Amino acid sequence: MTEEELLRRAIGLAAKAREGGNPPFGSLLAGPDGTVLAEDHNTSLTDGDITAHPELKLARWAAQNLDAETAAKTTLYTSCQPCGMCAGALERSGLGRVVFALSNEQLLGLKPGGGFAPVPQEGPALYEEARVPVEGYY
């Protein structure tokens, strides 16, 4: 399959998510030859799970089913650019690359009211105590 065909398939998965009452996002993971290894769509509302984004589910699938060398040769095709949560998981996943159809900026232009409000964060604090379980791990 070509990259455009794979992106169209991801867009079809997004339509399936929406038809099922979920946010309209879909993704698939392809091997280096374009063979689809796994695919999924957003189920965050029907599962009652804010992490049920297809990119995150496929990153988990890859971690459980692919060795590091195979994962590094894959491409994630997704209907929309991964959100911050999914981007963080993908950075840790070892997948080769991501190709998306709709950018986050374009998505925000289609969303009345824009994105989510950021949650305030405070820190760092208690460095001497917090470093103890971490030091020497990496």
From TrEMBL:
Domain of life, source organism: Bacteria
Coiled-coil annotated spans: none
InterPro entries from the UniProt entry: CMP_dCMP_dom (IPR002125), Cytidine_deaminase-like (IPR016193)
Short name of any one Pfam family annotated for the protein: dCMP_cyt_deam_1
Domain (CMP/dCMP-type deaminase): residue spans on this chain: 1-134
Protein's UniProt name: tRNA(Arg) A34 adenosine deaminase TadA
Annotated source species: Amycolatopsis magusensis
